[in-house]
Amino acid sequence: MSETELSLNTARKLHLAAQNLLKPPPRKALYDDVAAAIRHMSLLQIDTIHVVARSPYLVLFSRLGAFPPEWLEMTLAEGKLFEYWAHEACFIPVEDYKLLRHRMLAPANMGWKYNAGWVEQHQQDIQQLMRHIEQHGPVRSADFSASPAQKPGWWSWKPHKRHLENLFTAGEVMVTERRNFQRVYDLRRRVLPEWDDDLHRLSEPDAVQQMVQNSMRSLGIFRAEWLADYYRLKRVPVKPLLSQALERGEVVAVKVEKLGIMYLHRGLLPLLEQPLLATASALLSPFDPVVWDRRRALELFNFDYRLECYTPEARRKFGYFVLPILHRGALKGRLDAKMLRKEQILQIKAVWLEAGVKVNASLVRDLTRTLNDFARWQGAEQVIVDHAPAELSNCWGHGWRCL
């Protein structure tokens, strides 16, 4: 049987549909939508940079529209989510704890995230810390003072922070809540009192299979080589798992214009029965699943994207915290944004459009509305655009009050 043939634009729309970015939110966000959105993506990457909104909030805003950011912390505190290393540090639906437990039980395989030498060297102090948590309750690393000789910087963490990070990777403590986005740690047995490794733990092969299945569903349409990155799976036999999914009918092979053979999750098949329209526009976080795999973003969207906040300023091509612009099924540009909270201004330092993108009424209208919505959500009363293509500058001027 010959494969279904799809245009590249259709493939892009199918991926965006899988990520809930094909159409605008159908209604005002509700509290339970936070957990549902994360479940739909399988995981939500955590990053603390807050030049604009912190990444997890921005990823949710792109899909839900304006929502109270504290809903994310509330969802974590209620136990609907847990934190662990998945793609990187992520919020993950608690029902998927079983998928990551094998990593916790073999922390030495987690690379830089676990330092066996440190744990061995400080075993007595770590056990004392565990007793402290047991007797006095959850802690933050900020609750413990550093030595007067301690040097500042992430490369020179104080001992208790290192203890907690190693205990976290080993699954001995869990993040039970966040206060001002700082992790609060408690003993695993108190956070998940009903968990029993003998009863609930999956073998690593079974866990990997489910992670790959989650990746297939959350990507929607994919190449085989894209699958492992979603959960940062290493040395995983993806092709046999893909073959099994094909045999079970979970995915079907399709032929995509310019990209060749790809695989489509069966949950998206009904979308092929009618014209597929992309009507959503959004600013994407650098850590959004749509763009966190830079190679995939280039192959699927022809969008060459790098996060340059860790690049010396003189070597940056665009800016410190550049957000991709999604407009109706395509990544059409990027902008360097900064939220001036004291002044209640959203500053757009520069806007760049991709080669060949034409500025039309739809783009101007959607991008203006997107910036207005984002600015209001961040508490801004004004948007100021320092540099933009002439066609946009002529419409916007230097700045405008949020409408």
What can you tell me about this protein's structure?
The protein is an alpha+beta fold. Helix content is 37%, strand content 19%. It is built from 16 helices and 15 strands. The protein has helices at 8-18, 32-41, 55-64, 70-77, 97-104, 116-121, 123-136, 159-169, 188-191, 197-200, 204-219, 227-230, 238-248, 294-301, 361-377, 390-396, and strands at 4-6, 44-45, 81-85, 89-93, 173-179, 182-187, 221-222, 251-256, 260-265, 281-283, 322-327, 330-340, 345-353, 382-385, 399-401. The strands form four sheets. The chain has a six-stranded mixed β-sheet with strand order 10-11-12-13-14-15. A hairpin with a 2-residue loop joins strand 11 and strand 12 (330-340). Helix 5 crosses helix 11. The longest helix is centred in the C-terminal third of the chain and has 17 residues, at 361-377. The radius of gyration is 22 Å and the shape is globular. The protein starts with a strand and ends with a strand.
Shape: globular
Low-confidence stretches: none
Number of strands: 15
Strand composition percent: 15-25%
Structural class: alpha+beta
Distance between the termini: 54 Å
Percent of residues in helices comes to 25-40%
Radius of gyration: 22 Å
Mean pLDDT across all amino acids:
93
User: How many individual helices?
Assistant: 16
Largest sheet geometry: 6 strands, mixed
Strand order of the largest sheet: 10-11-12-13-14-15
